[in-house]
Amino acid sequence: MTNHGSQAHQARKRFGQNFLVDAAVVESIVRAIAPQQQDNMVEIGPGLSALTAPLLERLERLSVIEIDRDLAQRLRERFPAARLNIVEGDALQIDFAQFGDKLRIVGNLPYNISSPLLFALVGCAERVIDQHFMLQKEVVDRMVARAGESDYSRLSVMLQYRYRIQKLFDVSPDAFDPPPRVTSSIVRMIPLGPERLRAQSDTLFAQVVQRAFSQRRKMLRGVLGEWTASIPWESLGIEPTWRAEQVSVAGFVGMTDALWQASVR
Which of 116, 151, 191, 214 could form a disulfide with 125 if both were Cys (CB 3.0 to 4.6 A apart)? Predict the structure, then answer.
């Protein structure tokens, strides 16, 4: 990808900028996203437009969120406003409702905000068709991990509770300028429909999961404290001597519902 403007843009550490420069990788990502002309697509962190340009070749219109003023200005100079809607700001602070419904969200996410951003996007999952992100490989490995696997974590549970998640492929550091110190992966996230398994209280579910994983090496009966007595361990098929990473998403829903019932009695 060529840099547009009079001089090359210096990647900014504070924004976690690593620019994708490998054309073959770009093509693979665009193929995985499979943009259709009328799609309502939002790209987070367009950077030097490595993805933006090929997406715009296939879309009628694209919205992008860019925190870096200089990069936003480059985008304005390169693409007509009628086709590229540029929202300047921090993706963590943006209200995605402004983009409407049936959103397809894509992006090479800055690694320093990836987890908080993934959690923030859960709040607008109702509006989303799918999400395709490039993330640090170890983050994607955690997102797709199953109960009992070493990468299984709070992130795994909270995201699998809301999305069907699929790791597509890895991207080596040399596909970027500057090269990050880590391998990246492309992940696809599709929000689960209304028939999904859902706890009686999403808030309590989040609290139970957070507490369970707060001391990973501790047994559940120790880490859950006063909640332990209200959980029907045997009927849920969960042992109080287990650790958080042994409990499936469905198991956490069962524990949450038991605590919810106990609290409303």
Answer: 191
- Token duo for residue 28: 């693979």
CA distance between the termini of the chain: 62
Write out pLDDT tens, residues 219-239: 999 999 999 999 999 999 999
Q: Specify the CATH number of the domain 202-264.
A: 1.10.8.100
243, 216 in Cβ contact below 8 A?
A: yes
Which residue, 45, 69, 194, is CA-closest to 132?
45
Query: Residue 87's beta-bridge partner residues?
Result: 65
Strands 176-177 and 19-20: antiparallel
Is residue 65 a contact partner of residue 117, using CB atoms and an 8 Å limit?
A: no
Q: Are strands 128-136 and 84-88 parallel, antiparallel or unpaired?
A: unpaired
Task: Return the structure tokens found at 169.
Answer: 């492929």
Give the single-character DSSP code of 119: H
Rounded Cα distance between 32 and 48, Å, is 20
The pair of three-digit structure tokens given for residue 9, joined into one six-digit string: 């843009």
The Cβ of residue 222 has, within 10 Å, a number of other Cβ atoms equal to 13
Instruction: Sort 249 into a burial class: Cβ within 10 Å, 0-12 / 13-18 / 19+.
Output: buried
Task: Name beta bridge partners: 88.
Answer: 66
* CATH classification number, 13-191, choose in 3.40.50.620, 3.40.50.150, 3.90.1150.10, 3.40.718.10: 3.40.50.150
Considering the chain, tell me which residue range(s) the CATH 3.40.50.150 domain(s) occupy: 13-191
Give the Å distances, CA to CA, from 161 to 37, 42, 155, 231.
31, 23, 10, 20
**Contact residues for 207 (Cβ-Cβ < 8 A; gap 6+):** none
All CATH 1.10.8.100 domain ranges in the chain, comma separated: 202-264
